[in-house]
Fold this sequence. Notes:
The protein is built from 2 helices and 6 strands; from the N terminus they run E-E-E-H-E-H-E-E. The chain has 125 residues and is of the alpha+beta class. It has a single domain (4-124), classed as CATH 3.30.1330.40. It has a 6-stranded mixed sheet with strand order 1-2-3-6-4-5, covered by helices on one side. Strand 4 (72-79), helix 2 (85-93) and strand 5 (102-107) form a beta-alpha-beta unit.
Amino acid sequence: MSKTIISTENAPAAIGPYSQAVQHGDTIYVSGQLPLNPETKKMDEDVSKQTEQSMNNIKAILQEAGSSMEKILRCGIFVTDLTDFAAINDIYARFFEGEYPARATVQVAALPLGAKVEIDAIAVA
């Protein structure tokens, strides 16, 4: 099996023993992205701003891999409060041009570093 580790300074470094993304063949698996600003290593408290930062982190990783948001096949969204669903959807939708990837959204008890949202993605190169 041949795989390529994807890493960029334009997204936050992994906070554990995992890669920002791994590519196998034409498929890119982007690890869950917390809403950490890669420059400040901090996150905003607002869930909309957290969603935007997580999506920007995914975008930066895909760009490093030579891919783009338009090539995302599936996203997973993990939230600590489903009452934030509408706010998250509003920001999330702005990253796509009407052709949305498949997606699952689930509420979880907690996320690393106290984040309110974490998003992962699978895309093609």
